[in-house]
Design brief:
It contains 16 helices and 13 strands. It is of the alpha/beta class. Strand 11, helix 11 and strand 12 form a beta-alpha-beta unit. Helix 8 packs across helix 13, helix 11 crosses helix 14 and helix 15 packs across helix 16. It is globular. The termini are close together.
């Protein structure tokens, strides 16, 4: 599909738990930010529907405050109040989309009802799944498998197997992409290991600390404290000269810290759908030491050491390994597999497939006649 000839008018829907702005709360926010800016840079017409305070091209704020500021998940998960707040925001987004002039929608909301609305209104849409299937979302996705107007993407081959045992034509893998110009290798390297991310039990920081203590290796920690009780009980008592908490650093500071480290440690206690931390480390020329959960083996490849999940002794041995892959090998893997350019190309193929299926059905679509003809001939 010659995307250089046609501009696709894309409505991007974000989740609204946090604003999509640096410093990012986690991988989903970083991913959406890169997606919106990458599509804009590729020449597409992007409208971003997200929480107020987001830093995105052509932002349409669908709620004044992110959910976490009003209904923090720790207290309101599953509550009627949180559900109503989300429903109001995403209905506002959808009303704008249904009455707008878009060729395709890219749904990153994690709000199952959006799929129903797209089917009801006959709108071509790509829905990206960033977490393992939960009941309500699984039901919605399985309801559209085989309907190529509704394209579903996941971030890894590991995740694809969780969503369907078959190989439906509208379920695709599009790896997350990162900005390779921001995450670059550095000549300034030291011998300290680095763990970074959200400080919460399912990220396993406590196990990384135990492994570093066994291995007698220095470990730096960077990230936002999402679970204060966990930090105070499981982390703070073990901060010593060799194990340091550096806070929640800004973008350039974080980039420098990652690129200077000997290796990045990833210790998920759940099946990570992708593992953006690992891709960022590889782009920075830094190998990864990780638990074998979710897609991490798929992302890291030969550029680090993967150990059995929750095995702190095995992770300690990996921390002591003298010969880890070098910067050029790690960087090359990131360039080949995890660039924003490659991610955008993957999503463009999905937009094209959804729009082509939509044009073939004769359904309502705002795409121009010339664009429809090109899609049908592609």
């Amino acid at each position: 599909m010659p995307f250089g000839i046609f501009t696709i008018r894309i409505a991007l829907i974000a989740h609204i738990r946090h604003p999509i702005a640096p410093p990012f709360m986690g991988g989903m926010e970083s991913h959406f930010h890169g997606l919106a800016r990458g599509l804009d840079a590729a020449g597409h017409s992007v409208t971003s529907f997200a929480a107020g305070g987001s830093d995105l091209p052509n932002l349409k704020a669908i709620c004044t405050q992110p959910c976490e500021e009003i209904y923090p998940r720790e207290r309101f998960a599953g509550s009627d109040a949180l559900q109503a707040y989300q429903l109001s925001a995403f209905r506002l987004a959808w009303d704008c989309i249904a009455s707008g002039n878009f060729d395709a929608v890219h749904n990153n909301s994690l709000f199952p009802e959006v799929i129903d609305w797209a089917v009801r209104d006959g709108i071509a849409m790509v829905t990206s799944q960033h977490v393992p299937p939960f009941k309500a979302m699984r039901e919605k996705v399985h309801g559209v498998l085989g309907d190529e107007r509704q394209q579903i993407t996941v971030t890894s081959r590991h995740q694809k197997g969780l969503w369907s045992a078959d190989d439906p034509p509208n379920l695709s893998v599009v790896h997350n992409g990162i900005d390779l110009t921001r995450w670059q290798p550095s000549a300034r390297r030291h011998d300290r290991l680095l763990w970074y991310g959200r400080i919460t039990p399912n990220k396993g920081l406590a196990l990384a600390i135990k492994s570093a203590a066994i291995a007698d290796r220095p470990l730096d920690i960077i990230g936002t404290i999402e679970d204060r009780a966990y930090f105070e009980v499981e982390i703070a008592p073990y901060l010593t000269g060799k194990i340091r908490y550096l806070g929640h650093l800004s973008g350039p500071q974080l980039h420098e810290a990652v690129a200077a480290s000997r290796a990045v440690v990833a210790t998920p206690m759940w099946d990570e759908p992708f593992g953006l931390v690992a891709a960022e480390a590889l782009s920075s020329g830094v190998p990864v030491l990780a638990f074998d959960r979710g897609a991490l083996r798929e992302v890291v490849g030969p550029c680090g050491i993967i150990v059995p999940a929750a095995d702190i002794a095995a992770l300690a041995r990996a921390m002591q390994e003298p010969d880890l892959p070098g910067p050029s090998v790690c960087r090359q893997r990131a360039e080949q597999c995890f660039s924003i350019t490659q991610m955008i190309a993957g999503y463009e193929r999905c937009y094209c497939a959804a729009m082509k299926a939509q044009a073939g059905t004769g359904g309502d679509s705002s795409a121009s006649s010339a664009f429809k003809t090109t899609l049908l001939l592609a």
